[in-house]
Amino acid sequence: MDVVSDAISAMHLGHPRSNRLRMGGSWCTRLDPYDGAGFHVVLKGHCWLWTEGGDPVSLGVGDAVLLPHGTGHVIADTPPGAADPAREPVPFERWCAEAGAEVRGDREGTEMLCGKYWLDGSRMHPLLAELPEVVHLPSRVGRHLELRAAIDLLAGELDEVRPGSCVALPNLLDLLLVYMIRSWMTETSSGAWPGALGDPVTAAALRAMHADPAAPWTNDRLAAEAGVSRPTLARRFTALVGRPPMAYLAWWRVVRAAGLLRDTKETLAAIATRVGYGSPYALSHAFEREFGTTPGRYRAQATGRPASVPPPQRPPGQGDFGDTAGRRLSRSS
C-alpha cells in the first residue's frame, strides 16, 4: 500500500459511525475527548465550532471539519458568549435525549453530517500525528472535488435506508477520511509529511518500503529505487521524515506487526516473516523496545484477554455519536 493508506489502516479499529442531524432554534452541545477522529460537515445553515483554548471556527454550507486526535469540542448556533455568556454546552448524549422531538416544518435550521472513527493511538503514523487539532476545509468552488462528491454520496445514503447501505456507509465514511486528509495535504503550508511525499526521492523510498516492508532493504537498494546516491537519500529522507531510512523501516515493521497481532491469529513466526524479521526472537526484541511489552501480551490486551502487563492506553473514548441517522434536534430559543 501507499503511505497514506498504510497510515490510516495501521490504526483503524472497527467500523466508523455517523449520523445526520437537523437542529433548530438555539442550541449548544459539547463532545468530550475520545480515542479516534471526529468529523462534521455542514449541509445546510451555519454553526460554530471551538475547542478549549482554540479560536471559534465559523462553518458554512459545504464546510468540513476533521478532528484527527479526538479533541473535545463544542458546536453551537452562535459563537461563544455571543447570545448568552452564561450558556453552558449540554453534553452531546444528554442533548440528543432531551431534544429528540422532531422539528416539523423547520426549514431555517442547521443540518450536519457528524461521525467518528475509532483509532489506536499507540500505532499512529507521524503523518497523522502532525495533523492539527482542528482541520477546517472550507467549501470553495472548484476545490476538493473528490471530498465534495464523497459528502454528497454519504448524505444520500443517510437520507434513507436502501439496499446495500450496510456496506456502502462504512466504505463511504472511510473514503471521506482519506479525502479529508488528502485535502489537508494540498492546503497546508506547514508539516513535514506533505513535503516528504512531495519530494520525489523521499517519496520513492517510502513507496518501496510500504509496498514490501519484508524485502531485504538496505540503504543502497533504497537509493537505487530513488535513483540517487546513498548519501543523497540519507540526507533528504532524514531531513523530511525526521529519521534515517532504515530507522523508519524498523519502526514501520513493528507497527505492521502490531496490526497483525491485533487483527489476525497468525503465529509470531509467520508475522515475523511477513514484516521482514528473520526470527520470532528478533521481532520480539524489536517489538518490546518500541511498545514496552511483549508481542504475546500486546495481543492478549488488544483482543480483550487478560494480560499481566498491558501496554499503556489512553482513557476510554467518550462522546459517541451513536446511530441516530436522520434525527432532528431542537432547542428552544
Average pLDDT figure: 83
- Uncertain segments are 100-105, 306-333
Sketch the topology as an H/E string, one letter per element.
HEEEEEEEEHEHEHHHHHHHHHHE
Globally, the shape reads globular
Specify the biggest β-sheet: 6 strands, mixed
Give Rg in angstroms.
Answer: 22 Å
Structural class: alpha+beta
Seen as an oligomer or otherwise, the chain set is single chain
Instruction: Indicate the percent of residues in helices.
Output: 40-55%
Number of helices: 13
Strand order across the largest sheet: 10-6-3-9-1-11
How many beta-strand elements?
11
Query: What percent strand?
Result: 15-25%
Report how far apart the termini are: 51 Å
Q: Would you give an account of this structure?
A:
- The protein is of the alpha+beta class.
- Helices cover 43% and strands 18% of the residues.
- It contains 13 helices and 11 strands.
- The strands form 2 sheets. The protein has a 6-stranded mixed β-sheet. Strands 5-4-7-2-8 form a 5-stranded mixed β-sheet.
- Helix 4 runs antiparallel to helix 5 (165-187).
- The protein is globular, with a radius of gyration of 22 Å.
- The model is unreliable at 100-105 and 306-333 (pLDDT under 50).
SSE layout and pairings?
Elements: H1 3-11, E1 12-25, E2 28-31, E3 36-44, E4 47-50, E5 57-59, E6 64-67, E7 73-76, E8 90-91, H2 92-98, E9 110-119, H3 126-129, E10 135-137, H4 145-159, H5 165-187, H6 192-198, H7 200-211, H8 219-226, H9 230-241, H10 245-263, H11 268-275, H12 280-291, H13 295-302, E11 328-331
Parallel strand pairs: 1-11, 2-8
Antiparallel strand pairs: 1-9, 2-7, 3-6, 3-9, 4-5, 4-7, 6-10
